[in-house]
Every structure is written in C-alpha cells, then in structure tokens.
Amino acid sequence: MDSIEGKKVLVTGGAGFIGYNLSLALSRKGAETRVVDNLSSQGSLERMKKLNSHKIFTVVADIRHRHKIASLSKDCDVIFHLAAMASVPLSVKRPQYDCQVNVVGTVNVFEAARLTDAKIVFASSSAVYGTPTKIPIPENHQLKPISFYGLTKVVDEFYCEAYHETHGLQVVSLRLFNVYGPEARMGVTYDFLKKLWKDNKRLEVIGDGEQSKDFIYVDDVVRAFLAASQIEKANGEAYNVGSGDSIKVKDLAYKTVDRLGLSDKTDIVCGVTPTWIGDVKYTKADLTKARSELKWKPKIDHNSGLDNAIRWFESAYGKITR
Ligand SMILES: NC(=O)c1ccc[n+]([C@@H]2O[C@H](COP(=O)([O-])OP(=O)(O)OC[C@H]3O[C@@H](n4cnc5c(N)ncnc54)[C@H](O)[C@@H]3O)[C@@H](O)[C@H]2O)c1
User: Fold this and answer.
1) Whose CA is nearest to atom 28 of ligand 1?
2) Does 98 sit in the ligand 1 pocket, CB within 6 Å?
C-alpha cells in the first residue's frame, strides 16, 4: 500500500458534503490538496474559505469546462472525482443538466486524468443497482437503475472500465450507499433534524416509512476513498461502500427522536407525502469484496454516527428544543 502523504491530489466537488470531509482528511494526512467546485449545490464559499485555512488550494470552476479541469489536474497523482448533480428528483426534472454534469463533466475529468497519468477514485452510487433482486446486494448484481441519476452513474462506471481498458487509466469506482454525518445538508437524517429543529412536536416521514436503507457514516466513506486510492489491485474495479446493514426509515425517525430525548413529545407521521420518483425502496450492501480487496470495513456504529450528526447539526443551526 502506497501512502497518500506528499501526493498531489485534486478533489472535484470538494466543497460538497463528502468532498469537504475527504479534503480535510487528505490534508491532515499530508497530501498537497486542491479542490474544485462550482458551488452549485451543497458547496459554499464559506466551506472554500475553511478549506483554505487548512492550506488547501481551492478554485471555483465547473467540471463541464474541460480546459479548466485539465489545467487544474496538471501534475496530480490522484483525482478524487465527487463533483456531480447528486439529486435523484432533480435528475428527473432536468435530465439534460444531469447528463451534462454527470456524464460530460466526468469524461472531462477522465481525459484530464489520462493526460496527466493520474489515478481516479470515482464516487458512484448504489443507485446503479435500481430495485435489488438480491439482498445484501453484491457488486455483480445487475445494473438496472430506476432514475436518470442512477443511469448517469452507470454510464460513468462504463467509462471507468473503458478508460481502464483503452488507456490503462487507473480508476476505481466506489458505490456509495446513503451517506450521513457532519456537513450533510441533504438526505434523510438531515431532513429529520431540520424538521425537528423547526417543530419538535411533529416529524413527518416522506413515504410510508417502510423503505429500508443502508446508512453509512461519512468518516467511513472517507476511509474507503483513501484505501481505494492506495491499493493497486482495486484498479478497474467497483466496490460497495455501505454499512452492510439497513434500517427502515420510520425506525430511523423513532431512533432520532429517541436519541434527542423527544420520544414523549414528538408524533411521528408517515404516509402523508409520497416518496420521489426514482427512490429505491430497499438497499443493503454486501461488503465481502470491499473487505477482502480494499481491506476496508465500516467502523462507526449507527448510534454513535447519529449522535455525531446531531452534535454537528446543533452546532451549525442551534439546539433542537427538548
Ligand atoms: N451523499 C450520498 O448519500 C451519496 C450516495 C451515493 C453517491 N454519492 C455521490 O458522492 C458524490 C458527493 O456527494 P455529496 O453527497 O457530497 O453531494 P454534494 O452535492 O454535497 O457534493 C457535490 C459537489 O459537487 C459540486 N458540483 C456540482 N456540479 C458541479 C460542476 N458542474 N462542477 C463542479 N462542481 C460541481 C457541488 O457544488 C457540490 O459541492 C457525488 O458524486 C454523489 O453522486 C453521494
């Protein structure tokens, strides 16, 4: 295993939820870290400034601008490619935009990597599987996405394979399941905390609450990116990055309320608002391949992860009234 210390790395989408956590970890490990983000979704100037204070070089730019991405990638050893239009509902509303960012933008990043001979670790998604026919889901499960977002990630993965085959590009895809934790301003956990912060008497769960998902803590995901960047055998491969467990969304609501000490105060209401088109109702990762080849496994249990997410949320937005 090769150390990341002293390496030149670029993180696309580095001002986003996962990219921000990853960039800080890379810098802490002694990598010379650059970040590019167009600040279109979770990325913000405030985060860029925080990254600068950790000696991380930041540029506001768009991955759809291939010359810019090529120049930013110069001399890089590793590119962590996380910039994306990461919303399933938005991919249904704006398929052309989704395709431009997630497919054309990704090809720009691959071309830049090819020119500079950098390795790529690509943020794919469990959305590539669509509705699973086998649980837990192994990597060789069929790829049958049920959203445009999932489709763009499948196309990107095929580009990963094609670049690996045609140009020998070193590239690894990580199929992330539902990531939660500090800095997340999207996703189910954040949605629950935001609702409880506004009104602690009622928590509405989108859908019937029977959807059951695999939630993985962001620090564990960051460790998977680091492992993937350093293991030669991973080149040309795709790996599940989940907890290996799943929880019903309504049970997550009860758990969140319980950890906040609000069980006697909050009514949990399910089934009022339907889930969005393209929502996969059941996910649970098979981690056999990641454990054996990346030597990676999740370390943070769901209760501790949830407590950390609550702590971060309250430090960012203020206390949730008990
Ligand atoms: N969060 C999850 O649960 C999850 C699950 C599966 C896969 N992923 C993937 O992981 C990656 C990171 O996800 P995240 O949750 O941190 O999302 P995020 O939206 O917080 O991060 C994506 C970042 O990319 C930036 N970006 C978007 N379009 C861009 C463009 N054209 N040029 C440059 N920057 C652009 C955004 O401003 C944002 O800061 C994404 O590729 C996403 O698809 C996330």
Assistant:
1) 84
2) no
